[in-house]
Design goal:
Helix 2 packs antiparallel against helix 5. The chain contains ten helices and no strands. By secondary structure, it is an all-alpha fold. The chain has one domain. The radius of gyration is 23 Å and the shape is elongated. About 70% of the residues lie in helices and about 0% in strands. The longest helix is centred in the middle third of the chain and has 26 residues. The two termini are about 30 Å apart.
Amino acid sequence: MLPNLKCRPLLLLSLLVGYHLPAQADALATLSKKDAASGLKTALAQCADKAVQQLGAPDGFLKNAKVTIPLPPAFQKVDAALRLFGRAGDADALKTSLNHAAEDAVSQAGPVLKTSLRRMTLADAKGILAGGDDAATSYFRRNAGDALRNTFRPIVARATAKVRLAGLYDQYAGKAAQYGLMNSTDANMNEYVTARALDGLFVVMADEERAIRKDPMGQASSILKKVFGVL
């Protein structure tokens, strides 16, 4: 008979570890290092490709409520004033332009992500395989985040330069930042859009990664089924 586990959480934990972890470890041990690395790279590539394709498509950010870039909270007063004076179209155009700039930037993310993927080490692979639902996405954020930011900035700058309210945004936001009403990063429109574009990219990548981990057998790739199916 099992002992009373209700008041013995440590014993319960030890039993769970004892019953489940060895089985998973045995399953993982059957995978060759080549298969494990191949499966992980396939998963990473799939997460990256789908995120870039989805967000880099026309209205990719605007059609996805999870990543649509809003005007910063401190800019809402300007938005309200513009609408009060019948200039709602200007505020809406600014929001649309911000999201299109992010869309253009993300469409160029593929080469940077592939470079990061080629640099993945065995230690990285082990950490991703044993990590949480977004371990692969976190790998990209750590290893490609700075390069993506540098790639995005000039693209965003070219896109926002065409927006009539770009100067107004920077002027107002800069003053708001001085008084602590706005994050200093958000005070510059280009930096704001670049940061939100990166966030959106990683949000969609994480969603794709969770889908792979949740249903590996539903994936088209046989190597994904083999590697993630044992977890």
